[in-house]
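Standup notes
- DV: blocked on the single-chain target, sequence here:
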Amino acid sequence: MNGVLAIYQKEMWHYFHSPIAYFMVSVFLLGTGYFFIYNIFFTGIAAMADTFQNMGILLLLVIPVMSMRLFASEYSDGTMELLQTLPLQSWQVVIAKYMGAVTMLLLMIAGTMIDLVPLYMFAEPETSTILAGYIGFALLGMACLAIGQLFSALTENQIVAALITVSVLLGFWFVGNMQSFQTSQTLAILVGYLSFSDHFGEFVQGLVRTEAVAFYFIVSAIALTLNASYLQWRR
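- DV (later): unblocked, structure below
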């Protein structure tokens, strides 16, 4: 566990000493703040539903930037060989880096909660619905990070990793729109089940369904397992 903690601490040090990380967090918080102000004060609807939906789309663009360096930077810096010689299993390396990225995600989520202050000062929002939205947002982010980390491990170029990740994430987000084009009921159900936006929409509406929670955990687990398997294969 000491090795896992050391890699985790290294990841956190990198995040807090990287100008790109600060820029990424700033863009995310400014973006969510803009969506909140527009949705609350310009539409006059004292609810977080639209803001959460906009945050979800913004997350698909921020996550690739956050995850692109996780392994790709190790290749470019020439430290991947050193990382693989550590007395750690591949899955431990993967989990340590993933934990660092998830920690940053949770800090970003915590930063958006400042938007709730005026909401509770001037309105009476449903706390349970907001809580469900944040749970769904965190699960969505964790699944996206796992996918981004996988593609970061598959390529040595950070830009390529980010571009592939954003393409895949947007595909998962909009795949639900293909349901109406399916002639097979089975395919329509499958396409709907794979939709990130459909599952996230349930959380935004205040529904914390076991199926949706399991979906995001399964996606994360599959991506992390493939990540660890690839690193083990490289050894």
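- Follow-up: The chain has a mean pLDDT of 86.
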